[in-house]
Amino acid sequence: MTDPSLLVPYYEHPAERPEAWAALVDAAPSLYGVVLNPASGAGAAPDAAFAEAAGRLRAVGVRVLGYVDTAYGRRPHAEVVAELVRHRDWYGADGAFLDQVATAPAALAHYRRIAVAARAAGAATLVFNHGAHPDPGYEAQADLLVTFEGPWDTYRTLDLPVAAHYCHLVYAAPADVRPATPVHCAVPGTGAHPWGTLPHLLEPAR
Fold first, then answer.
1. Mind listing the pLDDT tens digit for each residue in 158-196?
2. How far apart are CA 143 and CA 182, in angstroms?
3. Which pLDDT score, from 0 to 100, does residue 1 have?
């Protein structure tokens, strides 16, 4: 597993799962990037443990993508941009993972403005998590589009488009599952917090 193919949204605190964060550092050659999510976003103040973890990832060449919820276009532009800047300033994030991105063309102008501001704030890599297949207009705004996020039982029934700039995020997945897109992630986690587990090959024994 050497291709930089894993985009890992990992939403556990480094002080509580240090061995898992160490596993991410060790897996650097296989990682497209790691989504940093201290408090459903950057949080109200810097978290030293996340800053240290982000620094270790950057030191081995891993993209650090700051998590920002955009509420399907309902969150104001200024709030989204301010959070992107906090990720950059507090954690050295060199990219952004925008969650709950709209899929309809009506919100394209809103996300185009966000993308321009994110690039201006230093986001070298921009990921839009639509969770479903979006209008083609979004493809020009981001480096990677998450066109599926959901459980394996749903994913296995679908015949989704595949492209180099699409990503599928699958949870409740068996150990042998590899999503169809070149960049992807499949984890064993279930329930309300599936992204508290790493991909099977990286998850340390507890």
1. 999 999 999 999 999 999 999 999 999 999 999 999 999
2. 13
3. 44
- Burial track 180-194 (b if 16+ CB lie within 10 A, e otherwise): ebbbbbbbbbeeeeb
- Report how far apart, in Å, the C-alpha atoms of 102 and of each of 33, 40, 98, 135, 205 are: 22, 18, 10, 9, 37
pTM for the full predicted model: 0.96
* Residue carrying the six token digits 């589009």: 145
80 backbone dihedrals φ, ψ, rounded to 5°:
-60, -45
Q: Measured between alpha carbons, how far is 87 from 42 in angstroms, rounded to an integer?
A: 6
107-133 pLDDT, tens per residue?
999 999 999 999 999 999 999 999 999
Look at residue 168 in the predicted model and tell me its pLDDT: 98
CA–chain centroid gap for 34, Å, is 6
Looking at residue 26, its amino acid is D
Q: Six-digit token pair at 127?
A: 């990921």
Nearest to 63 by CA among 107, 123, 120: 123
- What CA–CA distance (Å, rounded) separates 112 from 98? 12
